[in-house]
């Protein structure tokens, strides 16, 4: 499929099939209470994307789903997107979708990277700081969105009350009522743009890979499996007892 030319960083048209270098600075989503930041770099050749993401300041010992969100406004949600839950302002995944779009690619550490793996929490990075590097194949729709400047990197999982775990302070997740909203809310976000400054140009480190088999919840913008989050919460409870 031939894509229409788009403007590159220097204003010259870039054909859809040509190489593209995209960068993003990841910043805390409003009301997420995150203090960390991140960077991302994507080298796109055809439908092959070499991805590098660095993130810090996230919840310790917790899984953090991350994705390319595509085909919307190509921006991160503003503070005005927040709603009150349990008398606390927050932005959940659904609130952000009009701005950053649905999931186009799951940035897993191994195995499938399609939206079908958007919930495979056992194949996403874990912990407060990580460096993720992987070469993956993206869909035509994702490649088109990235080249058009409407691709956004979103890292999920917040701790708004600072108690070191995902809990129900914000009520149930908008994605599944069996999950806490903290586990699925967007934490860091950045728009991928050609020629943007400050993104990862390299870096040491490795991604984390576990058993790729997991029970998942289907649906646009879905993130975490009930089984995986339940296991995480059980581990937290066991350590605290």
In terms of topology, how is this protein built?
Blueprint: E1 6-7, E2 13-14, E3 20-28, E4 38-45, E5 48-55, E6 66-70, E7 83-85, E8 88-90, H1 93-100, E9 102-106, E10 130-137, H2 140-148, E11 152-156, H3 181-184, E12 186-191, E13 193-194, H4 226-240
Antiparallel strand pairs: 1-2, 3-4, 3-12, 3-13, 4-5, 5-10, 6-9, 6-11, 7-8, 11-12
Low-confidence stretches: 1-15, 197-226
What radius of gyration results from the CA coordinates? 17 Å
According to DSSP, the number of beta strands is 13
Q: Write down the overall geometry.
A: globular
Organism: Streptomyces oceani
Protein name: CHRD domain-containing protein
Region (Disordered): 1-20
Structure, explained:
- With 241 residues, this protein is α+β, with helices and mostly antiparallel strands.
- It has a single domain (19-240), classed as Immunoglobulin-like, CATH 2.60.40.200.
- The protein contains four helices and 13 strands.
- The strands form three sheets. Strands 3, 4, 5, 6, 9, 10, 11, 12 and 13 form a nine-stranded antiparallel β-sheet that branches. Strands 1-2 form a two-stranded antiparallel sheet. It has a two-stranded antiparallel sheet with strand order 7-8.
- Strand 4 (38-45) and strand 5 form a beta hairpin.
- The longest helix has 15 residues, at 226-240.
- Residues 1-15 and 197-226 have low confidence and may be disordered.
- It comes from Streptomyces oceani.
- This is CHRD domain-containing protein.
- Residues 1-20 are annotated as: Disordered.
